[in-house]
């Protein structure tokens, strides 16, 4: 059996692609808002996410994935948590800034995929609004933004409702 493979490019071989991966988790506490993908949600126990910014773990994971794809570090480097400027910051505005940085470097966002790990509240009816918020800030079509939700089957910090986490991957291209 022959295992060698000859690559026959059918499109621009100067195209570069990059993949990025991001993760974030924030604690669930009383007295804070619960914002995911820019959507204000209601937790059955009135809990929200603690953080210096609005603690939107989904948007934070996506920003880290975008920065990671270009080897630019993480969001803390661009928006330091000890800088009062980012106190209660709207993470969608921070996302707009990251998109600007990427487009200035002539990279295009191909797609984003992500998952939110939250025991409660049920997120499925809010997913399309989150996708729309993110697609708008990234200046891509909604079809290129994937967001899923899963419980952690009551396991670990998310399962005990100590926090909510999110993972994201992105693909970038440049001609
Ligand atoms: N916070 C959540 C968690 C899950 N969902 C939806 O429920 C489905 C089943 O979740 P499991 O963790 O039991 O696999 C999941 O696929 C989501 O559609 C949700 O809306 N909100
Ligand atoms: C965006 C920032 C700004 O303080 O948000 P935080 O709420 O501190 O969240 P975290 O994910 O811990 O760190 C990222 C920070 O840069």
UniProtKB/TrEMBL annotation:
GO terms (BP aspect): isopentenyl diphosphate biosynthetic process, methylerythritol 4-phosphate pathway; terpenoid biosynthetic process
Query: Which of this chain's residues are annotated to bind 4-CDP-2-C-methyl-D-erythritol 2-phosphate?
Result: 24-26, 52-53, 74-76, 150-153, 160
In this chain's numbering, which residues are marked as the site (Transition state stabilizer)? Answer: 52, 151
Which cofactors does it use?
Answer: a divalent metal cation
User: Which residues, by range, are in coiled-coil regions?
Assistant: none
Q: Where does a divalent metal cation bind?
A: 24, 26, 60
Per its record, the protein catalyses: 4-CDP-2-C-methyl-D-erythritol 2-phosphate = 2-C-methyl-D-erythritol 2,4-cyclic diphosphate + CMP
Can you provide one Gene Ontology molecular function annotated for this UniProt record?
Answer: metal ion binding
List keywords of the entry alphabetically: Isoprene biosynthesis, Lyase, Metal-binding
EC identifiers of the protein:
4.6.1.12
For the protein in the UniProt heading, the enzyme class is: lyase
User: What does the UniProt cofactor note say?
Assistant: Binds 1 divalent metal cation per subunit.
Tell me where in this chain the 2-C-methyl-D-erythritol 2,4-cyclodiphosphate synthase domain is found: 17-172
- Of which family is this protein a member? Belongs to the IspF family.
Q: What biological function has been recorded for the protein in this entry?
A: Involved in the biosynthesis of isopentenyl diphosphate (IPP) and dimethylallyl diphosphate (DMAPP), two major building blocks of isoprenoid compounds. Catalyzes the conversion of 4-diphosphocytidyl-2-C-methyl-D-erythritol 2-phosphate (CDP-ME2P) to 2-C-methyl-D-erythritol 2,4-cyclodiphosphate (ME-CPP) with a corresponding release of cytidine 5-monophosphate (CMP).
The protein's name: 2-C-methyl-D-erythritol 2,4-cyclodiphosphate synthase
């Amino acid at each position: 059996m022959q295992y060698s493979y000859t690559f026959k490019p059918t499109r621009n071989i100067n195209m570069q692609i990059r993949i990025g991966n991001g993760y974030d988790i924030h604690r669930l506490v009383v007295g804070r808002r619960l914002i995911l993908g820019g959507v204000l949600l209601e937790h059955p126990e009135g809990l929200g996410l603690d953080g210096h910014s609005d603690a939107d773990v989904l948007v934070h994971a996506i920003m880290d994935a975008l920065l990671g794809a270009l080897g630019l570090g993480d969001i803390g480097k661009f928006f330091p948590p000890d800088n009062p400027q980012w106190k209660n910051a709207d993470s969608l505005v921070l996302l707009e800034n990251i998109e600007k940085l990427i487009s200035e470097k002539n990279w295009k966002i191909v797609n984003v995929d992500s998952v939110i790990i939250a025991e409660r509240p049920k997120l499925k009816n809010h997913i399309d609004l989150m996708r729309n918020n993110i697609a708008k800030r990234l200046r891509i079509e909604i079809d290129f933004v994937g967001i899923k939700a899963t419980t952690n089957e009551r396991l670990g910090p998310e399962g005990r409702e100590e926090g909510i986490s999110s993972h994201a991957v992105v693909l970038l291209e440049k001609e």
